[in-house]
């Protein structure tokens, strides 16, 4: 079916070391959102994570001390703040057609070949023959096998190296529980905020340093246009854990085979573990690795986490997976996978059986074809957004290998640009500084949107910046 004839519907989600994703599945009626934002001061925003004691003083309080690590968090997850401003804008302009290209939530319907399988499973649960209760915490064997054969064939990954979950974001926090509080970590800057925030909550970091907008004891690896959004590893000190996302959220940059080979060697030289987030791998257009395990030696130093969210529209269904190879060992020789399995069995009862049936349908020949059509639709949106900002003379990055466009506004505050765009065009974007200090001066524009909304938003961008 030609791309321009492919139609869908849906909603929105995402994050920052100072912000987070909204996962939601809305009816088609509720997806055509008319949103709006407030006229408030548009300076740099910080949502301080403090309890509302001033408003709700009570006569009684417990003797339980608050987790001091929670007090280190300097801001709420980015996207609740973006949503707050959007909603305030809607109140200010109730008749405006607000278009959201901010939170990275899918908007197009899940293909019928997938939902029909889920529906049959739901109906079967109403019968004695079809009912099932708890499943294996690690996931259904058939789905684990399908994930391996689809994404990791000939890469040395076994079915039981794969742990099915309710999403990559959830597994990131479970991995942090495995690592504990006495590890050091590195993160790309800018990057998905769950890496940093979960490290803070676990007690791996020092206090937030307001002068540099960074937490102490985290290595922020600069990823800039000048270095092709890949860190200079020769200048990076050793850390125990390295969080790395490719294609990257928010920059859209994808690491080459040569770069990932260098990253794996860097981890081996330092005895580090890479946590590799490949949630956007199927958006890859260039001939870059879609899995870290394409790199020789990666099974000894890497974990990979991924998700069906941005492939099949499962942001609300919730289904992902994490690969922990048997070859990956702690310094005492104990397998990392055994500890991860212990945490999973303690903290998680397994992904929904209905969602797992949907995942199995995604990986059928018909399901894969349908997923690629949906991905192609969003990539078409990306091309429209990239062309628009290029035509206006902006430096534009990303888009080719990811559903995000990273637009540079040199010398300007990201929040100021966000506010300007919202106030003057009624379009919601995401301020780059929400993804870390390296995102200052950038705005992320998401390709997750209905085609008509994307075209209308780009029309408004042209009118604003012509």
Automatic annotation (TrEMBL):
GO BP: systemic acquired resistance, salicylic acid mediated signaling pathway
List the NCBIfam families: DAPAT_plant
Gene3D superfamilies the record matches? Aspartate Aminotransferase, domain 1, Type I PLP-dependent aspartate aminotransferase-like (Major domain)
- Is this entry keyworded Disulfide bond? no
Show the InterPro entries listed in the entry. Aminotransferase_I/II_large, DapL/ALD1, PyrdxlP-dep_Trfase, PyrdxlP-dep_Trfase_major, PyrdxlP-dep_Trfase_small
Q: Could you list the residue ranges forming a coiled coil in this record?
A: none
Which keywords are on file for this protein? Aminotransferase, Pyridoxal phosphate, Transferase
Please give the Pfam families that the UniProt record associates with this protein: Aminotran_1_2 (PF00155)
Task: Spell out the CDD domains in the cross-references.
Answer: AAT_like
What does the sequence similarity comment in the record state about its family?
Belongs to the class-I pyridoxal-phosphate-dependent aminotransferase family. LL-diaminopimelate aminotransferase subfamily.
GO molecular-function terms, A-Z: pyridoxal phosphate binding; transaminase activity
Aminotransferase class I/classII large domain segment(s): 97-461
Q: Which domain of life is it from?
A: Eukaryota
User: Which cofactors are reported in the record for this sequence?
Assistant: pyridoxal 5'-phosphate
Q: Which PANTHER family match?
A: AMINOTRANSFERASE
What name does this protein carry?
Aminotransferase class I/classII large domain-containing protein
């Amino acid at each position: 079916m030609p791309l321009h004839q492919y139609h869908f519907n849906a909603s929105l989600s995402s994050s920052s070391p100072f912000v987070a994703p909204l996962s939601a599945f809305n009816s088609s009626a509720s997806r055509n959102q008319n949103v709006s934002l407030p006229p408030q001061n548009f300076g740099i925003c910080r949502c301080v994570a403090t309890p509302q004691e001033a408003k709700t003083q009570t006569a009684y309080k417990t003797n339980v001390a608050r987790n001091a690590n929670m007090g280190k968090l300097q801001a709420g997850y980015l996207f609740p703040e973006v949503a707050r401003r959007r909603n305030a804008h809607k109140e200010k302009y109730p008749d405006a057609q607000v278009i959201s290209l901010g939170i990275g939530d899918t908007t197009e319907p899940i293909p019928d070949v997938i939902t029909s399988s889920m529906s049959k499973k739901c109906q079967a649960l109403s019968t004695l023959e079809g009912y099932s209760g708890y499943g294996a915490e690690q996931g259904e064997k058939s789905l684990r096998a399908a994930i391996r054969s689809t994404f990791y064939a000939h890469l040395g990954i076994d079915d039981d190296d794969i742990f099915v979950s309710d999403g990559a974001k959830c597994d990131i926090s479970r991995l942090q529980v495995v690592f504990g509080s006495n590890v050091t970590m590195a993160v790309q800057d800018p990057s998905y905020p769950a890496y940093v925030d979960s490290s803070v909550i676990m007690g791996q970091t020092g206090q937030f340093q307001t002068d540099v907008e960074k937490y102490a004891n985290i290595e922020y690896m600069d990823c800039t246009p000048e270095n092709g959004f890949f860190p200079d590893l020769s200048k990076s000190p050793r850390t125990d854990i390295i969080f790395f996302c490719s294609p990257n959220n928010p920059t859209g940059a994808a690491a080459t085979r040569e770069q990932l080979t260098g990253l794996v060697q860097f981890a081996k030289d330092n005895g580090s573990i890479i946590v590799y987030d490949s949630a956007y791998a199927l958006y890859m257009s260039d001939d870059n690795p879609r899995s870290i395990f394409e790199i020789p030696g990666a099974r000894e130093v890497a974990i990979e986490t991924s998700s069906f969210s941005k492939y099949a529209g499962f942001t609300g269904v919730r289904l992902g997976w994490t690969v922990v190879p048997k070859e990956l060992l702690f310094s005492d020789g104990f397998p990392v996978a055994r500890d991860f399995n212990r945490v999973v069995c303690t903290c998680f009862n397994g992904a929904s059986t209905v969602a797992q049936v949907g995942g199995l349908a995604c990986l059928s020949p018909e399901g894969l074809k349908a997923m690629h059509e949906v991905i192609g639709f969003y990539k078409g949106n990306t091309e429209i957004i990239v062309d628009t900002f290029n035509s206006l003379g902006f430096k534009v990055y990303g888009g080719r290998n990811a559903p995000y466009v990273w637009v540079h506004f040199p010398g300007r505050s990201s929040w100021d640009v966000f506010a300007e765009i919202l106030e003057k065009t009624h379009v919601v974007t995401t301020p780059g500084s929400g993804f870390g200090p390296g995102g200052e001066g950038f705005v992320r524009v998401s390709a997750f949107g209905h085609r008509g909304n994307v075209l209308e938003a780009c029309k408004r961008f042209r009118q604003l910046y012509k």
